[in-house]
């Protein structure tokens, strides 16, 4: 309609045919000519394929370079602590049994936040005042029971917490990623100590324990349950209850019993703490605790702990107060516990914020000494005072407990290379030693106790400080490599004239290969001769590869062009138009937001602000176009871009730091599911509208868009409706559909949609669907004029076909996003199409601004699909949409499509900026060059962001917020850099673009 | 609806579409509207005298005189009243600076001239409604703080729309510019002014105000918890400063380049 080339007409005039009437003599010549032409075409298409391949290889090298840089930085930044393999023993008589209990029951209630168990007056929260037994007992029977606040060390994930609770050390941030494949623990811990002292450890509950401690658990009484299916609130808990009481009441062959309940945690993940299921769960826990207390005998100690808390959304992993505060409760039928003498130590005012607290690692020496085993070798905790000051204890008991712990910590420190030379701490221990040696039965022990507490505190601080030490060499190399890759990308994509690039590619690739081998040998020999301390052989070789690529890609460029010429070219480029300036401004500002934690926190709002800036500029630019029709259409697209951006930016899942200035709007609501059903009509209709602008709604388009996409979105709507029914207790009871049937229908739907969109549709796409239709006109009245053949959709032959691939991915990504997120993705598709039209109308196809807007769109929709750059905000549950258990590709694909979906869609759409609305070109190589320019510009932008996060994260490594804000953002950028290289260059450029250009060249290129 | 267009036409469009980006930009910039005469800012006698010092004073008064930090809304209303007075004086200043076709303005009575300025102020205040909409689209809170946003919009409108209306004397549109009032008005508010922008002092103050406001949101997310970080104080200060800086850049450009 608006463009003049939406159809192609070929006229075969009769005179041309008559010319070749002299068939006899011309036949041979004609054949030869045809053969020549065919060979020429064959040669051309081979050349096209070859050049495209070389392009892809160079881009692959750049990708490898970036990945190596990120690996170096990660290795240097996320240091893991050194674990000493030593095992503590009682050989030196350093063991101490401070109780007469012969059995211990340890119940872990996952995510039992401290304010769940204390009375909170006038609170109507679902989680308050439900689990009341613990506090009542600690007030009414103080000598029999003890309730303390139990502070977890971040990261507050179950695996890390169990490690801390059994070894007494501080698991680091890196371990957080291994939550899903917990390995057998090789550090000294009290479970293995119990086993080696011939105690039987019975176990029932969360299978994280068996993953870590299976060799030490008494196999006759071990009942592990699958832990990661967070949809299921009751299976684990009912299993624990089923086995717990028979073990306590009927079996005698155990000494230590561990029970791990998961219901409260799963309820938090699934419904959040405000749901009434939380109240039911806490009341159930209350009953279980009462029953356990009734069934244990006088010689049994009962310990109840929570491993971490939960935040307002029910998730955990971070270090906010709500996440680290959990509960410690101890109970015995005979009087045993003392009390802290400080007034108001057990103050429950203000949700217990001033209540006496102990560290979670403090449980380790306490359990060890209460059961009479050696304190685990790596322990850094101190004994809990109340356990050693009760009615049956002498003052010496606490002093001994403190001394033995200090002695163990000293042992550990003397065995650690990095800790043993700290004279300040060592002197403190000398004092303790001399005090201990002079102690008698009657002497005052308070001075010794104070010294011990101080000693433990200071050595814990020193260890924390040490484990937060960074490998600056690795960090520096990582930053250097990424900076080099940025320079290469900019030079390669913008400075070198695009005519030279095909020639240059070949040289770059071969010289890189050669230099990689050279530098591999160089680095290997350097490593063998110098033996650098903090550079392993693999890392040295990786560095060799990186230097080889940097040198190999820069050498041919520097061979042709001098540095002055390149700088001159750069300055020349800066005399661009308004749009480039705007693009550069936005890139600069986006890069600078990583300099402040506040800006990172508010990145969602900043992205939408930038996008709106572009929209308004496009609106004003539209008034300057030369025809009224263009002005109207452009301003319409600009307005719809502005309004959809503003609307979609209302959806947000606030991160904790945004409170109280932000209110979460992302959630599962009925109207969102309803809107999803509406979307199944409107989204295909919108896409159809955009296709119709260039008459491209032909051929494969109706099948893909009208049938495939419409039904897919509808079925996805059904999926989330079923999910809503499953989670809504009222509907659940009213409809009375059994849980297994619902679950199996949901699995069927999700697998079906995934199979159709990602497997069937993609195979179909690789066959090369075209959105064109050939209309033969003037057939009836041949006499009047030449025969006209019209090809509808000719003007957008690349774009319309390429977009179908994006439709495939969009449908798959829609499936894995919750209803509101899915709506956001639908808007994203609309925005991308609008941007393509705007890029065409405002002539900014290969301008920097289009790339900037695309990237900003991906970030905006990352936030509006209910994500934040934090570990807690990952929607783990989407990993279980296709399978019940963790199954390699499906769980991971679910989480990746959910978290990174907007990025995948946007990265795939980059080639469309060039391909949209152009007719078949007879210069396919220059077309590929233009797409490559856009792709590398995208890569350059993302590399700017990555580089900025690397520098800023390294700069703020001592910042209070580094693990909470900077490190997660750096991880997101690292993952995005890798994803970008895979999706843009691998899938988009290499597979999809190559396929489509060759296909169309084969059809129209002759 | 579908047009049959010849193959060659399609190809020619193709080549222009695929032209390098450098060319793209130039095309947009140099694009001439054949139907509409280019709209240029009328030259002023002493351009330097219309440097908007009043916006610097307004920014100062906002804190020193009206005490915006303790009583935000009241101060904003007072500041708006003050700004109306200041802009009135600024309008008079522009009025006495016409060169060349100053014959026309002399023909008008003093009363007539003042009436024009007052009319322009009223139009500017009405224009604060669309400015408010623009602010909402840009991400201003929709459900809360609407009074503050509107006061900000009124300030912005007075700083941008009023000077440009005064300069173009929109009431004499057909005589001076050969187009209807509505066409001129639409072209003014959609910023369709062509030519060397940096020498047009009034136009530069407009751009400066917009850019200053745009940058003015920057300090809001910072977690310093200072009273001046409240909506919309930083934007307003950004607007005032941008207004002055824009004029200053233009002055430097006129005097030294």
UniProtKB/TrEMBL annotation, chain A:
<feature type="transmembrane region" description="Helical">
    <location>
        <begin position="512"/>
        <end position="530"/>
    </location>
</feature>
<feature type="transmembrane region" description="Helical">
    <location>
        <begin position="578"/>
        <end position="602"/>
    </location>
</feature>
<feature type="transmembrane region" description="Helical">
    <location>
        <begin position="609"/>
        <end position="629"/>
    </location>
</feature>
<keyword id="KW-0812">Transmembrane</keyword>
<feature type="transmembrane region" description="Helical">
    <location>
        <begin position="752"/>
        <end position="772"/>
    </location>
</feature>
<keyword id="KW-0325">Glycoprotein</keyword>
<feature type="transmembrane region" description="Helical">
    <location>
        <begin position="537"/>
        <end position="558"/>
    </location>
</feature>
<protein>
    <submittedName>
        <fullName>ER membrane localized phosphoryltransferase that adds phosphoethanolamine</fullName>
    </submittedName>
</protein>
<dbReference type="GO" id="GO:0006506">
    <property type="term" value="P:GPI anchor biosynthetic process"/>
</dbReference>
<feature type="transmembrane region" description="Helical">
    <location>
        <begin position="666"/>
        <end position="687"/>
    </location>
</feature>
<comment type="pathway">
    <text>Glycolipid biosynthesis; glycosylphosphatidylinositol-anchor biosynthesis.</text>
</comment>
<dbReference type="GO" id="GO:0005789">
    <property type="term" value="C:endoplasmic reticulum membrane"/>
</dbReference>
<feature type="region of interest" description="Disordered">
    <location>
        <begin position="1"/>
        <end position="22"/>
    </location>
</feature>
<dbReference type="GO" id="GO:0051377">
    <property type="term" value="F:mannose-ethanolamine phosphotransferase activity"/>
</dbReference>
<feature type="transmembrane region" description="Helical">
    <location>
        <begin position="848"/>
        <end position="870"/>
    </location>
</feature>
<keyword id="KW-0808">Transferase</keyword>
<keyword id="KW-0256">Endoplasmic reticulum</keyword>
<feature type="transmembrane region" description="Helical">
    <location>
        <begin position="54"/>
        <end position="73"/>
    </location>
</feature>
<dbReference type="Pfam" id="PF01663">
    <property type="entry name" value="Phosphodiest"/>
</dbReference>
<feature type="transmembrane region" description="Helical">
    <location>
        <begin position="974"/>
        <end position="993"/>
    </location>
</feature>
<feature type="transmembrane region" description="Helical">
    <location>
        <begin position="793"/>
        <end position="816"/>
    </location>
</feature>
<keyword id="KW-0472">Membrane</keyword>
From TrEMBL, chain B:
<feature type="transmembrane region" description="Helical">
    <location>
        <begin position="110"/>
        <end position="143"/>
    </location>
</feature>
<dbReference type="Pfam" id="PF06699">
    <property type="entry name" value="PIG-F"/>
</dbReference>
<dbReference type="GO" id="GO:0005789">
    <property type="term" value="C:endoplasmic reticulum membrane"/>
</dbReference>
<feature type="transmembrane region" description="Helical">
    <location>
        <begin position="201"/>
        <end position="222"/>
    </location>
</feature>
<feature type="transmembrane region" description="Helical">
    <location>
        <begin position="75"/>
        <end position="98"/>
    </location>
</feature>
<comment type="similarity">
    <text>Belongs to the PIGF family.</text>
</comment>
<feature type="region of interest" description="Disordered">
    <location>
        <begin position="1"/>
        <end position="41"/>
    </location>
</feature>
<feature type="compositionally biased region" description="Low complexity">
    <location>
        <begin position="1"/>
        <end position="19"/>
    </location>
</feature>
<feature type="transmembrane region" description="Helical">
    <location>
        <begin position="149"/>
        <end position="165"/>
    </location>
</feature>
<keyword id="KW-0256">Endoplasmic reticulum</keyword>
<feature type="transmembrane region" description="Helical">
    <location>
        <begin position="234"/>
        <end position="256"/>
    </location>
</feature>
<keyword id="KW-0472">Membrane</keyword>
<comment type="pathway">
    <text>Glycolipid biosynthesis; glycosylphosphatidylinositol-anchor biosynthesis.</text>
</comment>
<keyword id="KW-0337">GPI-anchor biosynthesis</keyword>
<keyword id="KW-1133">Transmembrane helix</keyword>
<protein>
    <recommendedName>
        <fullName>Glycosylphosphatidylinositol anchor biosynthesis protein 11</fullName>
    </recommendedName>
</protein>
<keyword id="KW-0812">Transmembrane</keyword>
<feature type="compositionally biased region" description="Basic and acidic residues">
    <location>
        <begin position="21"/>
        <end position="32"/>
    </location>
</feature>
<dbReference type="GO" id="GO:0006506">
    <property type="term" value="P:GPI anchor biosynthetic process"/>
</dbReference>
<dbReference type="InterPro" id="IPR009580">
    <property type="entry name" value="GPI_biosynthesis_protein_Pig-F"/>
</dbReference>
């Amino acid at each position: 309609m608006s463009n003049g080339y939406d159809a192609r007409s070929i006229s075969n005039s009769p005179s041309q045919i008559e010319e070749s009437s002299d068939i006899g003599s011309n036949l041979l010549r004609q054949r030869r000519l045809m053969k020549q032409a065919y060979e020429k075409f064959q040669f051309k298409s081979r050349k096209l394929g070859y050049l495209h391949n070389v392009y892809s290889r160079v881009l692959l090298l750049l990708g490898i370079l970036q990945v190596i840089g990120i690996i170096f930085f990660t290795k240097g930044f996320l240091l893991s602590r050194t674990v000493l393999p030593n095992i503590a023993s009682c050989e030196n008589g350093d063991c101490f049994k401070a109780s007469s209990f012969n059995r211990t029951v340890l119940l872990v209630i996952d995510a039992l936040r401290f304010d769940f168990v204390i009375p909170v007056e006038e609170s109507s929260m679902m989680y308050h005042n439900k689990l009341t037994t613990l506090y009542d007992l600690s007030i009414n029977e103080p000598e029999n029971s003890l309730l303390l606040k139990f502070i977890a060390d971040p990261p507050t994930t179950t695996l890390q917490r169990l490690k801390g609770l059994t070894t007494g050390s501080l698991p680091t941030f890196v371990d957080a990623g291994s939550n899903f494949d917990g390995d057998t623990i090789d550090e000294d811990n009290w479970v293995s100590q119990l086993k080696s002292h011939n105690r039987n450890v019975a176990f029932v509950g969360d299978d994280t324990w068996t993953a870590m401690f299976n060799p030490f658990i008494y196999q006759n009484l071990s009942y592990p349950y699958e832990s990661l299916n967070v949809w299921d609130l009751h299976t684990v808990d009912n299993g624990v209850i089923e086995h717990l009481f028979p073990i306590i009441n009927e079996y005698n062959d155990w000494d230590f019993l561990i029970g791990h309940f998961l219901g409260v945690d799963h309820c938090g993940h699934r419904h959040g703490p405000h749901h009434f299921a939380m109240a039911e769960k806490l009341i159930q826990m209350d009953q279980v605790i009462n029953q356990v207390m009734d069934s244990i005998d006088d010689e049994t100690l009962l310990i109840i702990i929570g491993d971490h808390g939960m935040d307002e959304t029910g998730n955990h992993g971070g270090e906010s107060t709500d996440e680290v505060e959990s509960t410690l409760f101890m109970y015995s039928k005979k009087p045993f516990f003392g009390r802290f003498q400080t007034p108001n130590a057990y103050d429950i005012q203000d949700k217990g914020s001033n209540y006496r607290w102990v560290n979670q690692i403090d449980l380790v020496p306490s359990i060890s000494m209460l059961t009479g085993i050696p304190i685990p070798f790596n322990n850094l905790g101190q004994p809990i005072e109340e356990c050693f000051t009760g009615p049956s204890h002498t003052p010496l008991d606490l002093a001994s407990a403190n001394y033995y712990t200090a002695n163990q910590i000293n042992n550990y420190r003397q065995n650690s290379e990095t800790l043993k030379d700290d004279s300040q701490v060592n002197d403190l221990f000398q004092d303790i030693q001399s005090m201990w040696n002079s102690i008698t039965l009657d002497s005052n022990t308070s001075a010794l106790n104070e010294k011990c507490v101080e000693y433990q505190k200071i050595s814990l601080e020193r260890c924390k400080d040490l484990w937060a030490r960074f490998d600056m060499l690795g960090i520096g190399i990582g930053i250097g490599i990424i900076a080099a890759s940025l320079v290469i990308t900019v030079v390669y994509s913008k400075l070198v004239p695009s005519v030279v690039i095909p020639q240059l590619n070949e040289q770059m690739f071969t010289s890189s290969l050669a230099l990689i081998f050279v530098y591999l040998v160089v680095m290997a020999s350097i490593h063998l001769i110098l033996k650098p301390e903090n550079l392993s052989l693999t890392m040295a070789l990786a560095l060799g590869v990186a230097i080889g690529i940097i040198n190999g890609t820069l050498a041919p460029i520097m061979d042709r062009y001098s540095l002055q010429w390149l700088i001159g070219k750069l300055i020349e480029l800066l005399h661009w138009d308004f749009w480039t300036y705007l693009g550069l401004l936005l890139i600069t500002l986006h890069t600078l937001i990583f300099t402040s934690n506040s800006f990172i926190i508010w990145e969602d709002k900043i992205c939408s602000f930038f996008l709106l800036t572009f929209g308004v500029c496009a609106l004003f630019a539209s008034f300057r176009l030369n025809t009224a029709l263009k002005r109207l259409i452009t301003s319409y697209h600009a307005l719809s871009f502005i309004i959809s951006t503003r609307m979609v930016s209302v959806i947000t899942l606030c991160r904790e730091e945004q409170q109280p200035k932000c209110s979460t709007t992302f959630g599962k609501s009925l109207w969102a599911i309803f809107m999803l059903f509406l979307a199944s009509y409107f989204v295909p209709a919108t896409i159809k509208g955009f296709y119709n602008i260039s008459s491209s709604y032909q051929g494969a388009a109706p099948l893909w868009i009208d049938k495939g996409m419409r039904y897919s979105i509808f079925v996805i709507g059904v999926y989330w409706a079923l999910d809503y029914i499953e989670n809504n207790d009222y509907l659940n009871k009213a409809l009375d559909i059994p849980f297994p049937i619902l679950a199996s229908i949901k699995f069927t739907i999700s697998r079906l949609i995934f199979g159709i969109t990602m497997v069937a549709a993609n195979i179909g796409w690789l066959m090369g669907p075209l959105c064109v239709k050939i209309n033969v006109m003037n057939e009836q009245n041949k006499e009047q004029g030449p025969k006209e053949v019209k090809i509808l959709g000719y003007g957008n032959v690349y774009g319309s076909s390429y977009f179908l691939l994006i439709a495939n991915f969009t449908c798959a990504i829609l499936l894995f996003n919750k209803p509101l997120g899915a709506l956001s993705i639908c808007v994203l598709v609309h925005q991308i199409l609008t941007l393509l039209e705007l890029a065409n109308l405002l002539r900014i196809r290969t301008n920097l601004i289009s790339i900037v807007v695309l990237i900003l769109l991906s970030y905006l929709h990352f936030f509006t699909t209910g994500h934040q750059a934090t570990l807690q905000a990952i929607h783990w549950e989407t990993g279980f949409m296709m399978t019940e258990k963790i199954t390699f590709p499906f769980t991971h694909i679910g989480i990746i499509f959910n978290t990174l979906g907007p990025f995948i869609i946007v990265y795939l759409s980059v080639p469309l900026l060039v391909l949209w609305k152009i007719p078949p070109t007879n210069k396919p190589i220059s077309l590929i060059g233009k797409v490559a320019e856009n792709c590398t510009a995208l890569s350059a932008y993302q590399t700017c962001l990555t580089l900025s996060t690397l520098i800023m994260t390294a700069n703020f490594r001592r910042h209070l917020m580094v693990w909470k804000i900077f490190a997660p953002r750096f991880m997101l950028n690292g993952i995005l850099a890798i994803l970008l290289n895979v999706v843009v260059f691998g899938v988009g450029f290499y597979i999809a673009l190559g396929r489509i250009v060759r296909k169309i060249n084969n059809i129209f290129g002759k | 609806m579908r047009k049959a267009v010849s193959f060659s036409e399609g190809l020619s469009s193709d080549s222009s579409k695929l032209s390098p980006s450098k060319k793209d930009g130039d095309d947009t910039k140099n694009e001439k509207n054949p139907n509409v005469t280019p709209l240029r800012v009328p030259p002023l006698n002493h351009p330097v005298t219309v440097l908007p010092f009043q916006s610097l004073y307004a920014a100062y008064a906002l804190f020193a005189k009206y005490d915006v930090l303790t009583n935000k809304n009241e101060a904003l209303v007072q500041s708006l009243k003050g700004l109306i007075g200041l802009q009135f004086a600024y309008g008079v200043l522009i009025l006495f600076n016409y060169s060349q076709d100053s014959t026309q303005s002399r023909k008008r009575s003093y009363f007539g001239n003042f009436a024009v300025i007052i009319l322009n102020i009223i139009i500017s205040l009405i224009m604060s409604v669309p400015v408010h909409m623009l602010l909402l689209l840009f991400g201003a809170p929709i459900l809360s703080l609407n009074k503050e946003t509107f006061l900000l919009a009124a300030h912005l409108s007075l700083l941008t729309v009023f000077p440009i209306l005064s300069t173009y004397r929109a009431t004499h549109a057909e005589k001076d510019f050969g187009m209807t009032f509505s066409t001129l008005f639409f072209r003014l508010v959609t910023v369709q002014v062509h030519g060397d922008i940096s020498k047009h002092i009034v136009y530069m103050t407009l751009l400066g105000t917009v850019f200053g406001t745009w940058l003015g949101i920057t300090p809001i997310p910072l977690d310093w918890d200072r009273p001046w970080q409240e909506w919309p104080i930083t934007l307003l200060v950004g607007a005032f400063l941008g207004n002055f800086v824009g004029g200053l850049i233009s002055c430097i450009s006129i005097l030294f380049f």
